[in-house]
């Protein structure tokens, strides 16, 4: 949904942009991002996963150790990250609030859950020299790391951290800093992505899953509600929250307020549908497991 919105945005804005709009930059190097803070971890993670999966499949057989579905989740998630952070969509996001919001949703509701489902850590470990794997894997078994990870992936803690990151960065003081400071912009995206990974991990792979997904359904609906509220506030507001973000809106055939309203709709509708859809799917699993427990001879979760 977000990718289709991005494509529609580019196509619709093209005729309205005279010299510096997307039509002038889409086929140019100027539209692509080469920030080393983004490119190095992005392409480094792809290389590690590719090499690790190849080695593991050579040893264990194709589809073993890393299932095909996991590999598909990783590459779809990685591609979503690349689309959000290095493609012309990122350039659009620096000029148009709607595109910036699409970036955020790609990071938080597309890339993050797909990468959590992929569980890429094991494959990446196989890309490392054999003598490094034991010491690095041992870090995850230390008491301090285990305690910290357990705390951060508690469903309540992860949900609150993600909510705080989302609302804090949309407060005018911090968001206006993003518009003028490249480091603040990078930090905003990093905090959105990291807290989204913790949030989705806590629900899909952590204790919420172990408890039968009941808690996951609650936290997903809670997140859908508060993100929708922020989207609604942006959409119905009669004034601009971030005047600097609307400086280029006219080049895309929009008023700054229309740009803000479209951005609010992106947060409100497509993102809300993802949260609600996943919540309903997990509710189905939860009900199914509960029914199995009540059935004589049923399968226990």
**Global outline:** globular
Q: What proportion of the residues is helical, as a percent range?
A: over 70%
User: Could you name the ranges where pLDDT drops below 50 across 5 or more consecutive residues?
Assistant: 2-7, 9-21
Strand runs, count: 0
Number of domains: 1
Number of helices, where a helix is a run of at least 4 consecutive DSSP H or I residues: 16
Sheet having the most strands: none
Q: Estimate the mean pLDDT confidence.
A: 86
Q: Gap between N and C termini, in Å?
A: 33 Å
Please state the CA-atom Rg, rounded to the nearest Å: 21 Å
Strand content: under 5%
Topology order in helix (H) and strand (E) letters: HHHHHHHHHHHHHHHH
Secondary structure category: mainly alpha
Write up this protein.
- There is one protein chain.
- The chain is mainly alpha-helical and 301 residues long.
- Helices cover 75% and strands 0% of the residues.
- It has helices spanning 2-13, 22-25, 36-60, 68-85, 88-93, 97-118, 121-126, 130-139, 143-152, 155-169, 172-180, 182-204, 207-210, 214-236, 256-268, 270-294.
Quick take:
This protein is mainly alpha-helical.
Descriptive terms for the model:
single chain; 301 residues; mainly alpha; globular; disordered N terminus
Would you spell out the secondary-structure blueprint of this structure?
Blueprint: H1 2-13, H2 22-25, H3 36-60, H4 68-85, H5 88-93, H6 97-118, H7 121-126, H8 130-139, H9 143-152, H10 155-169, H11 172-180, H12 182-204, H13 207-210, H14 214-236, H15 256-268, H16 270-294
Helix pairs in contact: 1-6, 3-4, 4-6, 6-12, 6-15, 10-12, 10-14, 11-12, 14-15, 14-16, 15-16
């Amino acid at each position: 949904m977000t990718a289709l919105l991005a494509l529609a945005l580019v196509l619709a804005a093209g005729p309205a942009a005279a010299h510096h709009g997307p039509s002038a930059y889409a086929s140019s190097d100027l539209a692509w991002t080469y920030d080393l803070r983004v490119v190095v971890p992005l392409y480094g993670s792809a290389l590690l996963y590719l090499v690790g999966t190849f080695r593991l499949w050579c040893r264990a057989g194709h589809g073993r150790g890393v299932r095909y579905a996991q590999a598909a989740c990783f590459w779809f998630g990685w591609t979503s990250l690349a689309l959000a952070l290095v493609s012309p969509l990122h350039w659009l996001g620096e000029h148009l609030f709607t595109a910036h919001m699409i970036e955020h949703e790609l990071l938080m509701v597309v890339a993050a859950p797909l990468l959590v489902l992929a569980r890429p850590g094991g494959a990446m470990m196989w890309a490392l020299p054999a003598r490094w794997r034991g010491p690095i894997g041992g870090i995850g078994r230390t008491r301090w790391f285990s305690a910290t990870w357990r705390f951060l992936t508690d469903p309540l803690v992860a949900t609150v951290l993600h909510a705080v990151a989302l609302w804090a960065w949309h407060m005018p003081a911090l968001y206006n800093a993003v518009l003028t400071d490249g480091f603040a912009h990078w930090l905003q995206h990093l905090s959105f992505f990291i807290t989204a990974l913790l949030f989705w991990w806590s629900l899909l792979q952590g204790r919420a899953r172990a408890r039968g997904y009941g808690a996951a359904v609650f936290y997903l609906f809670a997140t859908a509600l508060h993100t929708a509220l922020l989207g609604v506030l942006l959409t119905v507001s009669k004034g601009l929250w971030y005047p600097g973000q609307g400086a280029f809106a006219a080049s895309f055939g929009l008023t700054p307020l229309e740009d803000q309203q479209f951005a609010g709709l992106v947060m409100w509708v497509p993102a809300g549908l993802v949260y609600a859809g996943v919540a309903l799917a997990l509710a189905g699993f939860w009900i199914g497991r509960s029914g199995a427990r009540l059935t004589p001879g049923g399968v226990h979760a």
